Amino acid sequence: MAEKYQNKYRSESARLQSWDYRWAGAYFITICTHNREHYFGEIVNGKMILSNAGVLANVFWYEIKNHSKNVTLGEFVVMPDHMHGILILGDSMDDGIDRIVGTRHALSQPSQSEKPIGQQRFQNPGKNSISSIIGGYKSAVTKHANRLEIPFRWQTRFHDHIIRDQKSFDNISNYIRNNPAKWEEDKVCE
Question: Which H or E element spans position 142?
Answer without folding.
Answer: helix 130-147
